[in-house]
Amino acid sequence: MDFTKNCRLMGQPYMYKHATNLIKTLNKQREERPDLCDVTIIIEGKELKAHWCVLMTCPYFESMYNSGLAEKTSGKVTINIGKTYAVENVLQYLYLGNIEMSMSNLEDILEVADYLQCFDLKKLCNEFLDSQPMDSKSCVKICLISSLYDLAIHDEAMRFMKGHLKQVFQDEDILTLTHESVLSLLSDETLSYVSQDSFLQFLLRWLKFDIDNRRKDAFQLFLALNFENVSNESLNQVLTDNELDGLLPTNDINAILEHRNNGTNHQLQTSDIVILGGGVFFDKLNFGQPKEVILSSSSKKMYAFNLDEQKWTNLWTMPLPLERPVIRVSDDKKIHVMNLLGPARSEFSCFNRYDMHIFEIASKSWKTIKIDQDRHLIGFYLHDFILCGKRIFLLGRGVKQFNTTEESCKLIEVKDGGSIETQVLFDCNAKDHFYCSNLDSERIVIVCEWFHKKTFSIKYYNLDTHALTEPTRAKSCSSTISFTKILMYKGDIIQLDLKRRMMRKFSPNNNTWFCYPKITTPPIELSKSSMYTFCNDNLYVFGGDKSKSSYKYICKKKIWVELDDIPVTTGLYNSGVCVSTVASELVACHPNCPHCFYNSKDSGVTYPESEHSDVSYHDSDDDSDEYDWDNDYDEEEEEYSRSSDCVLM
């Protein structure tokens, strides 16, 4: 009879139970039957019995046994690191696979596990730390432990500490950080929400905590401190109290002060910024698709580019995603936002409805003004709006009368509660476009692009809003048609010819033109989909249909400077752009600010309850070619092809 046939593997349901009984038996032998053990571990004079077959699951012991060292033949292994109870706990883990952990014994266990290369136990320690509540006190200890033993939780602990640095600075545990960790904090540009004055005080405390061992690192750390942003008051106080004496030699103190004097002090109470808000994200999956698809990518984020420090920061989220907003900031620091493409009209209504969203910075609250439906809004298309003192004016075109198709340029004042008062300025046609800017608290300048076949003229009107009289005609100019951008800055009008790379400025106050030298070859294509603004004789270019890059053109030096990208993940275009001045603390944060990760800029912001919160925005019928950037003039216009010298290779 062949007994080899029909063989079966038996006992599988009992394998786990058998393995459990085996390791429990071996562990019991270790504790009660030392005569059955073949190796002795000596720690702090105490002998711990074990089995080579179990210890070799640990790389440290496996290497020792396989290399044929004396420990293999003698059966004795001396460990000169760690505490006895910690080694006993690690042995228990090697036998049973479990171990008791607490914050009080964790470092001792990690010390032994790291020395013995017990990687699974280190992962278990990481899981234990991950299960502990993270706060401003525990994050420092977790950061130190995880850094010392290379645990995965280190990045999370460090980010938490950086995000709560102002609170962490108040705790004594921060003074136990290593020199490398302190240097990384001082050098981290994302921590701009913490003042350099606070960093200076922390650095002095950290050095004095262990002055004998840390004095050698003082000079390097002080140089890492951004002394240009330390206030004169803080520095004078430190020098007056002689707090640097004993920390640095006199020559080093003089070198640091000279380094500060050679820089520019940036302790400003206010900052000039460019606000970028709304717009459309470019998505290669939907670009070129019907507008209802594109509009699903509209943005409701606002960003600020700090012109003083040349960096981006996040601002507050708008109540609605707006595809083509206009942004203005009033003298009392309220941000006003309107969408040029008003909400979809009801099929039973001949009115275009426009809402104005206003953000009050002081109270961090949005409110929405719903502009009343009036006969003057019949067929009205918003082109721009302006804040003149505490008054709000809308500028656009609409039908002159209800029963005609003739159009006129209208200036509409928005009163409290959304009521309006309209002034008809002059006749226009469907292709004319209008812009406006302040001359002073009572006068505005209106810029009109008048189109006729393949030429256009730009006409300027000064209007006294106090009396709302007939606008006064200013100097005008004419030129052949080209891709032109009109920019408004402090009452001046800047005409930018994208095709010819020409730029000139008109000052309505003295009725004069100033022509800038021809713009040098840009590093990017000057696309009409990009956002442009002008400030202090510098031209700024942001984004575009396929871009999130930013550039500054310095007119006086005729050079292009590449700036940080807009903090978005894809291309951005059609955003509202506005130059303003705000308190420096509002734009102190870096786009990747760890503090904002835990405390969003929108936390505490109140939003209005809107019946149109889910409304979609769309373009008007007569502007249906808004997205055809290269053919948005006359159909007879020759197709524009960009010359080869317009791209910097």
UniProtKB/TrEMBL annotation:
Residues 608-649 are annotated as: Disordered. Gene3D superfamilies: 1.25.40.420, Kelch-type beta propeller, Potassium Channel Kv1.1, Chain A. It holds the Pfam family BACK. Keywords: Kelch repeat, Repeat. Residues 620-639 have a biased composition (Acidic residues). It comes from the Eukaryota. Residues 37-103 form the BTB domain. Coiled coil: none annotated. Residues 609-619 have a biased composition (Basic and acidic residues). This is BTB domain-containing protein. It comes from Mytilus galloprovincialis.
